Amino acid sequence: xxxxxxxxxxxxxxxxxxxxxxxxxxxxxxxxxxxxxxxxxxxxxxxxxxxxxxxxxxxxxxxxxxxxxxxxxxxxxxxxxxxxxxxxxxxxxxxxxxxxxxxxxxxxxxxxxxxxxxxxxxxxxxxxxxxxxxxxxxxxxxxxxxxxxxxxxxxxxxxxxxxxxxxxxxxxxxxxxxxxxxxxxxxxxxxxxxxxxxxxxxxxxxxxxxxxxxxxxxxxxxxxxxxxxxxxxxxxxxxxxxxxxxxxxxxxxxxxxxxxxxxxxxxxxxxxxxxxxxxxxxxxxxxxxxxxxxxxxxxxxxxxxxxxxxxxxxxxxxxxxxxxxxxxxxxxxxxxxxxxxxxxxxxxxxxxxxxxxxxxxxxxxxxxxxxxxxxxxxxxxxxxxxxxxxxxxxxxxxxxxxxxxxxxxxxxxxxxxxxxxxxxxxxxxxxxxxxxxxxxxxxxxxxxxxxxxxxxxxxxxxxxxxxxxxxxxxxxxxxxxxxxxxxxxxxxxxxxxxxxxxxxxxxxxxxxxxxxxxxxxxxxxxxxxxxxxxxxxxxxxxxxxxxxxxxxxxxxxxxxxxxxxxxxxxxxxxxxxxxxxxxxxxxxxxxxxxxxxxxxxxxxxxxxxxxxxxxxxxxxxxxxxxxxxxxxxxxxxxxxxxxxxxxxxxxxxxxxxxxxxxxxxxxxxxxxxxxxxxxxxxxxxxxxxxxxxxxxxxxxxxxxxxxxxxxxxxxxxxxxxxxxxxxxxxxxxxxxxxxxxxxxxxxxxxxxxxxxxxxxxxxxxxxxxxxxxxxxxxxxxxxxxxxxxxxxxxxxxxxxxxxxxxxxxxxxxxxxxxxxxxxx
Length: 824
Known about the structure:
Elements: H1 11-19, E1 23-27, E2 33-36, H2 38-44, H3 48-51, H4 62-78, E3 82-89, E4 96-107, E5 113-122, H5 124-146, E6 149-155, E7 160-163, H6 165-171, H7 182-188, H8 191-207, E8 211-218, E9 224-235, E10 241-250, E11 278-282, E12 289-292, H9 294-300, H10 304-307, H11 312-315, H12 321-330, E13 337-344, E14 350-362, E15 365-374, H13 376-390, H14 400-413, E16 420-427, H15 430-437, H16 439-456, E17 463-467, E18 470-475, H17 487-502, E19 505-507, E20 510-512, E21 516-523, H18 531-547, E22 553-555, H19 563-577, E23 583-591, E24 597-608, E25 612-614, H20 616-626, H21 629-649, E26 655-659, H22 662-665, H23 670-680, E27 688-693, H24 701-714, E28 717-723, H25 730-733, E29 740-743, H26 745-750, H27 755-770, E30 774-777, H28 783-792, E31 797-798, E32 807-808, H29 809-816
Parallel strand pairs: 21-22, 24-26, 26-27, 27-28, 28-29, 29-30, 30-31
Antiparallel strand pairs: 1-2, 1-5, 3-4, 4-5, 6-7, 6-10, 8-9, 9-10, 11-12, 11-15, 13-14, 14-15, 16-18, 16-21, 17-18, 19-20, 23-24, 23-32, 24-25
């Protein structure tokens, strides 16, 4: 028979192939193209007529052409369909797709080879989702290790017992060599506890209910551990055990990490057989299915006979009949139309699907080629990832990552005349409970406080857990119902919360009364309010409440303490300090995991002739608010550039980072000023790192990106300071030409005791790894912190008092770069 071409294929099949969203092509046995569809034309940026008669060597590199040919020959040699994954770059517009390619040898009626059929499907979204889920599962495994809590699963039919790595660690066995079994498990239980555990398990089987067992285990070296098991048993109608699974937690040292959040999301299988997507030709006038593939019926649970004669309205579960009739004409165009909806299977189950439709002409009539892809599991997985990231696993409440988002929404919606309110609730001396009674009791206290707060608050989703001993209540203005929400309403709520939380409680068998402090502020306080300002005011009010002896509720007001007068006096003094030579350049080293100097951060100190050393915590906020921060920045940058030049001339070249304020960065002349400063001091741009905050990109995103790119092109590096504490989007982050992320000291401080902090640090390290960014961890104070961070990322850079306090430049040079001549 003659070789196939798109033109001599049956008309109806040719129309169907041309409408498919997949790449389809046919080659002869020598690799010469015989036919292809429009999607394949986009790959090489040529028409079918220009492609037919040529080989891959006419369009791609010899290496890539050889790769394609090897897979063609492999399918021919195997005599069956073979599949592989690859990344294709489309010549039509330069975009790339991760595709699954199927290659099938074609034979005529006599069995003679006539060519190879190729089909490639875009699976880029599924691959990204798969990688996201793998990272999420890796974080869950790490959380399991930190919590000393492992998991197991038993299949009695196959007599297979699976232990997680953490269970192996608890039992003192090697996962590489030890194969657990139920019989083996019984032998590891302490003889005095064995009968009780077996009876507990048998009772759970009889009653078909979960069980909890506390017992001892004997390790291979003869030592004992105390563990607690939570498990459930699944049985069939006859009472036969089908499956049992559970967790084992080491409670010997009474050190429990917060339980891992939720079930692991199952990896959604994105790469399926060639016909797994439903494909159908639809009559646009009636919505009836004219022709369809087997996958269309399988996805919806119908037989082919039952599906014949059905239409879109029979399976559509989200749109009304009128909406379907309005949608069909839109899908008749030449350009593909894609949207999400829900299909109802024959058994009534609703499935989320993505539909792609486009019009085709066939024998003078117009039809719709529609494909649909089931994304139900993918959507559930995304929701689970979101839950794991944004909710506290212990209390189930939103965490600090959601606070900025919700507070930003309130700022956008409320007005100063009719504000909402933010309450920070603090459990005073909560650490004493953990120290005296142990972490399990502390966790029980936090869970009870969360439960009470939800019950005491008009809107349950307005309660957030910031971690450790702090909770936040967001009270929107609409809770005033028939009147504007007032400060009196907020005070009444604060009093209700105060008394509700100070009532005696029981936690893990211990009775106690909590001491509570509450700081409150209106949201917004002024028309030009911000998330950071709201939190600053609330913290100020909370600190006043903590100092109170009776009424431990404090509202922020402008006259708190003597803050206003102090700021005014500092501003006047600071205006003379900058030109008066009262500022001092200090440096703090940044080292690698071995303690070797790799960089430094420049810090400013103010030595007043009468007041002495003034803390940066006092004068930096004043400089920000007054606009003096620009002059302060410029003094710092000039001093640092002179220092880098001196170090280079001494043969001790070092990159030094400098904090740049948003106000200075947004000034129109910022880029040109930095360029001029580099030239004036004969400094190399590669020796300068500018530190910016996440909040910098919230406004004028394009301006920020353009300025950073312009300086980056010169060789200047950028670092995002206090990463993970701000509220900018990762969508912005990936657009910025940054080189470094700095992990905020708040995460480092709690990392050796707080699983959430470790999870956040791991996430930041993962983001940095995938974006090829360097990472600096601030606030390193202990060897344990060094060991933890070096274990997570050996290439990490470390900064903190453990390696050296900030020193004035002359003292710092004597310690870290002796022999350098520098005139301050």
